[in-house]
Amino acid sequence: MKISVVQIGNSRGVRIPKAVLEQCNIKDEVDLEVEHGKLILKPTVDKPRQGWEQQFAAMSENEDDRLLIDDALELDVDDWQW
Question: Which residues share a beta bridge with 14?
Fold first, then answer.
């Protein structure tokens, strides 16, 4: 499929047909890579744990990384069932 490269301000762009966007599950944002002289567009994938490492490091520096619930298992509790 050939498509035109169009002027967009000082940049250039392409219009991607709706059917192709739907087929590739592309919504509002894509990841753009250049590989061996080719442009590769990939749909962005939510990364729910992105940034956790930095946040946990900041918690440790602020001494805010204590346990909220005691992690000890009390086996002598009367209402405990196996």
Answer: 5
Q: What is the pTM of this model?
A: 0.51
Specify the residue for token string 């749909």: 43
Structure tokens at 4: 């035109």
Class of domain 1-67 as given by CATH: mainly beta
**Cα separation of 28 and 43, whole Å?**
9
The full set of domain ranges for the chain reads 1-67
pLDDT digits (tens, 9 = 90+) for 1-12: 899 999 999 999
